[in-house]
Amino acid sequence: MAKAILARDVAAVARGETLSCLWEGVDRMQEMVMGGWMDLASSWKMSDSKRSPYKASWWAQMRAVLWRSCLATMKEPVLIKVRVLQTVMVGLLIGVIYYGQELDQNGVMNINGAIFVLIINMTFQNVFAVINVFCAELPVFKREHFNGMYRTDVYFLCKTIAEIPVFIAIPVIFISISYYMIGLNPDPERFLMAVITLTLVSNVATSFSYLISCVSSNIEMALTIGPMVIIPFLLFGGFFLNNSSVPIYFKFISYLSWFKYANEALLLNQWEGVDHIDCTASNTTCPKNGLVVIEKLDLVFGNLDIDLLSLAGLIIGFRFLAYLALLSKTYRSY
């Protein structure tokens, strides 16, 4: 009897240990399964975060948006014709006003004034041509961007690239009409340099206008702040105020003024190599040659290349700031 009871107790203990082992195995299996699912879910989450939110590659976006931007530009032939007509009319007007300047004291003053007028016209004509581009299209762009159709940099690049031919043709037409009517330096190389300079001015003004458009929340705001911001650059352009007279605390404005670089470049292009200016014997203040004109204007010989590079740098700088301003408006956490 005692042996039977002992055998039953041993069997019960063995059965309890077996069940305990089984439950421990189940717990370990559950932990392994849950851990595997967590790792798998984590890997899926990481892959989702690395996946691009856009529906096409960068190059595919670039081709499509650039094609659309070019079509949008070409679908406005009336606007392009009006701008060309405006350029021709203003070029003729300036040419008639300053027609046939001679190399004498009055001619020197008039030629210097005509050069600055050319820069002013190229600036304001192109600023107001594109100042509404980005702020007017911002709602449509943001909707398409957030729907994953294209990136901000793709839109900005395509929009600006599509308009480059216009902003090259306009200054070429403008200076071709007025240059020889005014009586500027007839050397073909000097004419070509004037074309290059005013083309750079046109694109600097366009780039600055892009910046104003991207910063502004609507067209009215852009049209209000645009001229107000341009005026300081105009005042420190070297025509109304001699470069050496600029106060030290305003120097940074003159360094950012495309009027300054363009004015110096065109004046150097005009007066370098001019050996004789007609002056009367009694007129002691009349500059005898181009060298004297350059010295009186406080210009630096050999700065022509630096001025052109500075204009190119302003184009890049203003467009980069415009892109950052546009990017700040389209940033969103996905």
TrEMBL record:
GO terms for cellular component: cytoplasmic vesicle membrane; plasma membrane. PANTHER family: ABC TRANSPORTER G FAMILY MEMBER 28, PROTEIN WHITE. InterPro entries: ABC2_TM, ABCG_transporters. It is found in: Membrane. Residues 61-270 form the ABC-2 type transporter transmembrane domain. It is a multi-pass membrane protein. This is ABC-2 type transporter transmembrane domain-containing protein. It comes from Timema poppense. It comes from the Eukaryota. The chain crosses the membrane at residues 84-101, 113-135, 156-179, 191-212, 219-241, 308-327. Its main location: membrane. Keywords: Membrane, Transmembrane, Transmembrane helix, Transport. GO terms for molecular function: ABC-type transporter activity. Coiled coil: none annotated.
